[in-house]
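Weekly sync notes, structure subgroup
Attendees: PM, AL, DS (notes)

Item 1: joint prediction request from the bench team. They want all two components modeled as one assembly rather than separately. Inputs as received:
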Amino acid sequence: MLTNKVTDLLNIKYPIIQAPMAGGVTTSELVAAVSNHGALGMIGAGYLTADQMREQIREIKKVTSKSFGVNLFVPTKFTVSFDAIKSSNETLQSIRDELNLPPRDQVVLPSYIEAMASFEEQIQVILDERIAICSYTFGLPSNEIIGQLKEHSIIQIGTATTVQEALEAEKRGMDLVVIQGIEAGGHRGNFINEFEESQIGLMSLIPQVVDVVSIPVIAAGGIMDGRGLLASLCLGAKCVQMGTAFLTCVESGAPDIHKEAILHATEDQTVLTRSFSGKWARGVKNKFIDETQPHQLSFPDFPIQNTLTQDIRKVSGSQKNLAFMSLWSGQSPRLAKSQTVETLIQTVMAEVSNLKQNL
Amino acid sequence: MLTNKVTDLLNIKYPIIQAPMAGGVTTSELVAAVSNHGALGMIGAGYLTADQMREQIREIKKVTSKSFGVNLFVPTKFTVSFDAIKSSNETLQSIRDELNLPPRDQVVLPSYIEAMASFEEQIQVILDERIAICSYTFGLPSNEIIGQLKEHSIIQIGTATTVQEALEAEKRGMDLVVIQGIEAGGHRGNFINEFEESQIGLMSLIPQVVDVVSIPVIAAGGIMDGRGLLASLCLGAKCVQMGTAFLTCVESGAPDIHKEAILHATEDQTVLTRSFSGKWARGVKNKFIDETQPHQLSFPDFPIQNTLTQDIRKVSGSQKNLAFMSLWSGQSPRLAKSQTVETLIQTVMAEVSNLKQNL
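Output from the run, pasted for the record:
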């Protein structure tokens, strides 16, 4: 079960994918270390321009000959509500004051058309650089794009939070699907189901998906060690995707205070919020979440809210002030360790061997 | 791993406990069938009087010589808010009209003191009838009661939703602890952590609890088959507690329309609500939940809200009208089957054997 069609397909030794965490976590060092040690490294390219993506891909190619993947955010339609923007700006004002940030009178908001154009530039880089594996979050691209990547034999991976979304990924031609349990850190990947309908624990989600979907399933959410890996395989997944476990590794680009926040957090301290970006995401509770929580349902959609909070997150980070940063984490922070990628992967696989013998 | 200290302690062949579902589900036929087929049957005695409990215990003793357990609701302090009662009655009025039920001008509300007296009567029955295993939901009883049961060598099981609650169960002398993941159907068992902090998926919760707590852990929530059982053991649990899987068995006392609702539900259709009872609980979405959802935070605490909705649930059930019944279910309804207890238990154990060989 440990080496299977999926490890063959992804050309990896172990059924482990490093989750493509966007926003600077997936440094070239991290991605290369993961791929060099037998798992699949992934660039979280959601917030990168095509040029930044190309640059990082070339950098990684210099330090590993192993395959690695790239994850893209599929642009989603969103509503520009001036009331929502006003509500957000009003709520954020006291935080801006505290950080000595000017009020947000003018802001350049992204448009869906611009986002689509950027996405197509990113796709072109995937094709030009002959990337072996491309995964998608927040939905699936057009049939045309999916077909283009298929022609180039690029393996495509969808992200789903429910059976219905996994079925859609299969129907639209994905080779594999990541199913994201409610345990997962960072952004929720639901794209058909509403947020309320897509909060399903992996213990329930994995078997219900694999019973219905024919493509191989990758389990994601709260998996940190050999116990989580073997449990996911028992439930029917063929591979796992681990985020938080890699985020606290020394090679990850997450700020040290973000890593420390996870290393000191407990399982009851992560929370789902839409205050940072306009999409629901899980992170360690802090002052920003507490203060914005009562108003979060009135904030604008992603990526508008993300733009409105950008300077707050940036300044808070540069001041090494946890209070207003997005401290993404899954529900298993007690299992996080500060270690190298090599140690993490080797420990996970040793745990799996031990566990199997004692079952 | 399959027979272990816990199966020895509970005197069962298989590491499976039938969840003590209150409200008529755990018929004597169900409990006896479970115990007779190698797992642990449990009476959900939360809503039973001491006399009803004694009667059922004696009935079960006639049809099984195997050990079985009883679960009690530990009375919790609650606030009587007239505003909350008014809000609830106003919201429920349109439902009462639809069911031709009279308005609720007067209602006999339970008091904490009465609930405590009833609880102590229940404990006396446990002692008198020499019940082998007693589990608690919604908290833990007094040290005096715990000590009394210990003197009689009764095995006591706490219910926890977080590491902190599991530690408290251990500290207070529980022999084992059920940890309830967010996947679980019916009432949430949180008693120290707030609802918002205690929504943790089993993939995260089991390993984080077993790393810290010394007493054996029983996993509960969304576990329906051999995959879930073996996955729970991989994560560090010693035993599982299954609710929904037993609820749809032919021996269970759940109304047929409740069973059918689960058998036709999908994983994205269960939801957490406090509208039925004043405590958060998971069930299949229906008209009652939809209509009360916007107001649920203003409803009174358990058990007041439970009393206020009692006639609605009863009449809805007797009219075989799903719309206003509490259709408790975990997050894995796609895995539910209409079958006998014997078939369920044998299938689960056969699946475990097969899975172990293919790992």
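Discussion: The radius of gyration of chain A is 19 Å.
Action: AL to compare against the crosslinking data before next sync.
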